[in-house]
Amino acid sequence: FILDVPREDTLARIESLVEKRLQGVISTNELTTLLDKSYYRSGAGLDKRIAMRIGAVVDHVMNTSSTITNFGDLTDEKKEIALSELIKHICTVVNVTFTKKQHDLFKEMLKERLLNKIGPSQVKQKADDSIKKGGMGLNRKTAIKVMQYVELIILIAVRSQEAFEKTK
User: Fold this and answer.
1) Is 90 within 8 Å of 123 (Cβ atoms)?
2) pLDDT tens across 15-35, in order?
3) Do 28 and 55 meet the contact criterion of CB atoms below 8 Å apart?
4) Which of the listed residues 42, 115, 127, 166 has the most CB atoms within 10 Å of its CB?
5) Where are the alpha helices (DSSP H) in the chain?
6) What values do phi and psi take at 19, rounded to 5?
7) Cα 148 off chain centre by
8) pTM of the entire structure?
């Protein structure tokens, strides 16, 4: 009990470490190591697998941040390519497989979210709604994971782009 770190402190540490990675202060390997290292040794105290996954996600989003933040300015062809790559990445990270119909619905929903036509709650609702209601028919937990991951991608992309513009 005495050595347990409050969740808010851990989240603040994770955010700080991710911010350093976005600013280019630390490498992906350093981020992963620090996320895995004990909180009392300047780390975040996460499990190594979670630390590696966060590092991979941050790198992926950093590599695609310009595409995500400037999605509305892309040609239709580049939007399709970007959406396909994002969907493949999201399916891998969230560990979900879509039917053709679900894939098409998710693609349209992701496009609307990246164009800021819908918000996070609509993403969750469309993912959770049954196919009869025009949704994807995912179970509630999976719908929440998908929504949270889409929002994480957007947040990191915006932060990454802001950090990049500060270094210009």
Assistant:
1) no
2) 899 888 888 899 999 999 999
3) yes
4) 127
5) 7-22, 28-36, 48-69, 76-94, 100-114, 120-128, 140-166
6) -60, -40
7) 7
8) 0.74
